[in-house]
Queue: 2 jobs
Job 1
Amino acid sequence: MSTVVEAVRSERQGFISSKLNWLRAGVLGANDGIVSIAGLLIGIAAVDPTNTHAIVIAGIAGIASAALSMAIGEYVSVSTQRDTEREIVRLQHVAQSRNPGHAFNEIKQVCLQRGMSEESAHQVASDLSSHEPVNAVISFKYGIDSDSLTSPWAAAGSSFIAFVSGAALPMLTMVLALPPLRIVATFVSVFVALALTGWISAWLGRSPRQRSVLRLVCAGSAAMIITYAIGRLLEGASMV
C-alpha cells in the first residue's frame, strides 16, 4: 500500500509543479510588462518629460502591441503542446484497445525505472490500471490530465493579462507623477516591483531569493538606464 501511496503522491506533485510553473510564468509575464514599458516610457520622457500626450500615446501603443505579441506567441506555443498531448492520448487509447495489458505494462515499466522492486512495481501497476487504465498511464507516465488538457486560449489570456498588469505600474507612475519627477518616480516604483517579482519567482522556483532579486533588479535597472541614455542622445542629436 505504501508504494501505491508514494506513486500517487509523486503524480500529484507533478500536477502541483505544473500549476506552480503556470503561476511563475504569470509573474514573469508581469515582469516583462514592467521592464519593457518602463524602458519605453523613460526613453520618451528623457527627451521631454512634460509631453504627457506623447507619453500616453506611446505607452498605450507599446502595451497593446507587446501584450498582443506575447499572447499570440503563447497561443501558438500552447496549441502545439496541446496537439502533442492529444496525440499521446489517442495513441494510448489505440494501444490499450489492441492490448488490454498495455497500461499495466507501461506503468510497471515506469515504476521499475524509478527504482521500485519488481513486486512493488507490479502492485502499483495493478492497482492504478484496474480503473480507467488509459487515463492512469497517461497521468502516471506523461503527467497529463486527459480531462483537462492545456487551453491555448487560457494561456494567451493569462499572458495578456499578466503583461498588462505589470505594464500598468510604470504607465500610471509616469502619467500621474509631476513632470520633473516622472523619471525618478518611475525608476523607484519599477525598482520595488522588480524586487517583489524577483522574490516571488524565486520562491515559486525554490531558488536563492537574494540572487534572483539582485539579478532582476540589476537587469531591469540597466534596461531603464540604457533607454534613458538613448533618449538623451536622440534629444541631443535633434538639436544639432
Job 2
Amino acid sequence: MKKVLIIIKNVFVWLMVALAVCMMIFMVISVNTFDRSDRSLFGFKAFIVLSDSMSKTDFDAGDLVLVKEVDPSTLNEGDIIAYTSQNTSNYGETVTHKIRKLTTDASGEPGFITYGTTTDTDDEIIITYPYVLGKYKTNIPKVGRFFMFLKTTPGYIVCILIPFLLLILIQGLNCIRLFRRYKLEQMAEMKEERAKIEEERAESQKMMAELLALKAQLAEKENQNKDSEMNTAENGTDGDL
C-alpha cells in the first residue's frame, strides 16, 4: 500500500510539472505570437476573435483563428481575411471579415469592401492591401478565451503561479521527509554501532574475566606444586635423620 501511495504521489508531482511547463509554453506563445500582426509562425498568424460579427457562418467570439500570409492581389470575393481596422470605433484592432467586393479607395489604391456575416453590414472603410494581414484558413473553438484568461493576472496566478507553488511545496515536503529519513537512519546506525561497541566491550570483559580466572587457577596450581615440593623435601630430611 505504501509503495502504491509513493507511485501516485510521484505521478501527481510529474503531472504538476508538466502542467506548469505547458502553461509557461502557452504563455510565451500567446504573448509573442497571438494577436501580433508583426509575428508569424511558418507563414501563419493567430488572432483571437473579439466579437460575434462572423458567428452566423464561421466562428464565434473567443475562438482562435489562423490566417495565412498571402499576396492581397490573389484574394477574391467570398474570401475571409484578417486586417488591421482603420475604423474610429476599433482603430488598430485585428478584424476577421469576409470580402464582399473588390474595389479601390478614393486615391485609387486597390482594396476590399468587407462585412460581417452576422449583421451583413459593410465595414465603414475600404481595406487596402497594406492593412491585410492574411487569408483565413481555420479556427480553434474557444481556445482564444483560454489565452485571453492566461494573459490576465488571475490567469497567471491560477495557471502558472499556483502549479509552481504547489511543486515547490511538494518538493519542500519531500526534502523534509528525506532529511527525517536520513536522521532516523543515522540514529539507527549510531544505535547499531553503540550496541556493537557494547557487545565487544562485554566480550572483552568476559575474556578478561576468563583470563583472570585462568591466571588464578594457574597461581593456585603453582602454589599447590610448591607446597607439595616442600612437603616432599621435609619428608626426605626426616628420613635421613
